[in-house]
# Entry
Amino acid sequence: MTSVLVVDGANVVGARPDGWWKDRAGAAERLHDALLHADVPHDRIVLVLEGQAKQGVRAGGPPSLRVVHAVRDGDSEIRRQAILAAEAGHDVTVVTADRALAANVAPAHVVGPSWLLDRMG
# Structure
């Protein structure tokens, strides 16, 4: 079974107080670059970006690390990506600390940003 990691980009970036708010596009780009080398046990990664962060990384990319730009809000797009992956028969994990979002992505597993940050070095 293919495993898919859906990343709440805003939530992961916001987990580190490194000045990301001064350059949201740059923070998204750094997250994307770190995900290229992340040691995660998943076959595919879907990075969901919203707002100004979308300017940092183009939408698309290979299945191993695909970037999705949220049309409306990030939470709706993260839920949509988790549902699409689950309906395709994939094992889905969502990375977020947003409790409301975490409660609405079943049957996906949910891990916090620190889980991912620890695997990105």
